[in-house]
Automatic annotation (TrEMBL):
Organism: Winogradskya humida
Region of interest: Disordered: 1-20, 484-510
InterPro entries cross-referenced by the UniProt entry: Pol/histidinol_Pase-like (IPR016195), TAT_signal (IPR006311)
Protein's UniProt name: Histidinol-phosphatase
Length: 530
């Protein structure tokens, strides 16, 4: 049984809640879920169905999470599971996934040892749902988060998957093996999810591979990181004059997809090129009419300005023989790092109607997701409605007759408290992006020429909770998604001003303070025109 978080427990006085807890409780009240309705569903029971009724659309509460967190069970990280989970709870996470690198030591020892530490961390942090996962070396490509629903076999499933299909352990660059791996997960009977991590960092996740993964296991391979971790990498003076947010500091190699431009190898407003380009790779996937979600997370290995260093192995021991790094040691001196703590800067928000592991996985699978950096806003609620009462929210679909009038309604809850940098964020603009759905495209296409910003709301003078409306006509099948920022750094998008007049841009190498350039993105809503 899972304990409900403090902000959802009517027995916890409001005076004992932090500002984020107070805000979350107000969301529950508005959704009519505060008290018995939410608490009664606090067990990790069967997942809610992906499709929701109109009544359910008024009941979603968005839980904050991070699906990419490393601990001492990764060969290149350092924190204990309890330290990572405790920091996540401190920075307001409701759920997180421990994603350890595939490695000989991890497959032989670490996965099993870590499960005991995860059970301990779950007991220590009852307000945080903690999944055990794996960072898979995809054969022929980059990395991906793989995780399953908690249970007695959670570690063993990861070990089997790692042993059979990991590109580092085998080793293998066979693209077909990646497809086979996803089909194996789909046939395993386990509730599993997979998300591609930092997809443009090395340029080796080709468009045809992304499509093959998505189509091999719909409902399991559900998306990719819209923004990578390591967002602190380019804080001025921290790592050097060439540093880039996300540690996107690479050049094309022999393994890279030759069609990608130079822009693909750096981040734009902290976001991966695939997501940041209006009319780019993400939109080319959505233009096929298939959901492919984005996320944002910490990829935490070593936190910026942290004073802990890696512990020392006993004589004769290595990661390969123990499956874990020794506990970290306090130095009282800042150590090297590029990452923020889970929840400190990057957040993935998932819409649920109940609190539990299965509910978070169901929300991710359904695409009820929006992401932000720097706690840019407290909340975003998005609804697309027809004059006949049909409605859909993020990740959903609405059917319409050609020529039918629809309304996109966006309710923004402004940041009500200083962020973890000590500054009260302000959303400067919110953009509506619309793309045509044209059906299947060529396997290596990474452009969607019919996608563009169709409306930009100036929100710089708005505060509190406010509503924006965008009327449209269902002329053909399409999708809508949203993007916003603090307005400090922007310029014409990568495909031109007529497509994106004020999109995210790369920062000067070595001068990319992430707190001064924050963005939010939402998943799409599809319009199926008949």
């Amino acid at each position: 049984m899972t304990s409900i978080p403090q902000w959802a427990d009517p027995g916890v006085p409001e005076g004992e809640l932090d500002p984020q807890g107070l805000n979350r409780r107000s969301l529950l009240r508005r959704a009519g879920l505060f008290g018995a309705g939410f608490a009664a569903a606090s067990v990790a029971g069967p997942a809610a169905p992906a499709a929701a009724s109109d009544k359910q659309l008024d009941q979603y509460v968005y839980l904050v999470g991070d699906h990419h967190v490393h601990t001492q069970y990764s060969h290149d990280a350092k924190y204990t599971v309890s330290q990572a989970a405790g920091r996540g709870a401190q920075f307001g996470l409701d759920w997180m996934v421990c994603t350890e690198h595939s490695n000989v030591g991890h497959e032989d020892f670490g996965a099993t040892l870590e499960r005991a530490d995860i059970l301990k961390a779950r007991a220590e942090n009852p307000r945080t749902l903690i999944f055990q996962g794996l960072e898979w070396y995809i054969p022929g490509a980059e990395h991906a988060t793989v995780f399953t629903a908690p249970g007695e076999a959670e570690a063993e499933v990861l070990r089997q998957f790692e042993k059979l299909y990991d590109g580092k352990l085998l080793p293998s660059s066979d693209e077909g093996l990646a497809v086979a791996a996803l089909k194996w997960l789909a046939a395993s009977g386990k509730d599993a999810l997979v998300l591609a991590n930092h997809p443009s960092r090395l340029g080796i996740d080709s468009p045809h591979e992304l499509r093959a993964w998505r189509d091999a296991a719909p409902g399991i391979m559900i998306g990719m990181e819209g923004a990578p971790g390591a967002q602190g990498a380019a804080i001025p003076g921290l790592r050097g004059a060439a540093s880039i947010r996300g540690e996107y500091e690479n050049k094309p190699s022999a393994q890279s997809y030759a069609g990608y431009p130079a822009d693909a190898y750096v981040t734009h407003g902290g976001f991966d090129w695939m997501t940041a380009t209006v009319g780019g790779m993400w939109d080319s996937l959505l233009a096929e009419g298939k959901l492919f979600s984005i996320t944002s997370n910490s990829d935490n290995h070593r936190t910026v300005f942290d004073t802990l260093r890696n512990g020392d192995f006993p004589a004769g021991s290595t990661f390969d023989s123990t499956g874990r790094i020794p506990d970290p040691i306090e130095t009282h001196t800042a150590q090297a790092g590029s990452d923020f703590w889970p929840g400190q800067f990057s957040r993935t928000h998932v819409g649920v109607t109940r609190y539990g592991y299965a509910e978070v996985m169901a929300g991710l699978r359904a695409g009820r997701v929006w992401v932000d950096h720097g706690q840019l806003v407290d909340g975003v609620d998005v609804r697309l409605t027809s004059a006949h009462g049909r409605s859909a929210t993020l990740g959903g679909r609405i059917s319409a007759r050609r020529g039918e009038r629809l309304t996109l309604t966006v309710t923004v809850t402004s940041a009500s408290r200083p962020n973890f940098h000590g500054v009260l964020p302000r959303l400067a603009h919110l953009d509506v992006i619309r793309g045509a759905v044209r059906g299947p495209s060529s396997p290596d296409s990474f452009v969607a020429p019919d996608t563009r910003v169709v409306e930009s709301f100036d929100t710089s003078r708005r505060s509190g909770t406010y509503t924006l409306k965008f009327p449209l006509v269902a002329s053909s099948s399409s999708y809508l998604r949203l993007r916003g920022s603090d307005g400090r750094r922007h310029g014409p998008g990568l495909l031109g001003r007529s497509v994106d007049p004020h999109g995210p841009i790369p920062h000067t190498p070595g001068d990319g303070d992430p707190w001064l350039d924050t963005w939010l993105y939402t998943n799409p809503i599809f319009i199926d025109v008949k």
